[in-house]
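Quick one:
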Amino acid sequence: MGYTPSHLGHVNIYVRNAEASRQWYEDVLGLHTYDFLAGRAAFMTANLDESHEIALMEVGADAEGPHKGQVGLNHMAWRMETLDDLADFYNNLHDKGVEIKRVSNHSLSLGIYIEDPDGNGIEVYYETPRSEWYRQEKLFLHGDRPEVNFPGPWEKELQPDGVATKS
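Output:
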């Protein structure tokens, strides 16, 4: 259909300090900075064929952070190509001392949830190919999802309900 977008192009989020946030996104997520304006904004991407996938807009040191349970962005999600890549990312988080909020097995994907220094939610995930999904519709929030095993270093943190919290 002509009126349907081809894909989500970028996310624009507010941060207290664009330079500090840019450094964090480069260090933790490995993003490339295409443009940076001190005191204003950073434009970053994981896909070098895109001008930016995230814009970090500075709002100042005294700005309030996100409020849980309030209308607004819950999290942004960055997809990894392979489960091994997700394991490398997970181990890198531990090496850098980044707090993992939870690891969730969604049956067709496995997500690692963290927050940036301003409290913006981030999921980094691996999703199985569509041909391996347990069905093609009604994928979420139904009680009949099958147990899917995603072996990796996070196994000790997964709880029986598929959600883990770092202690």
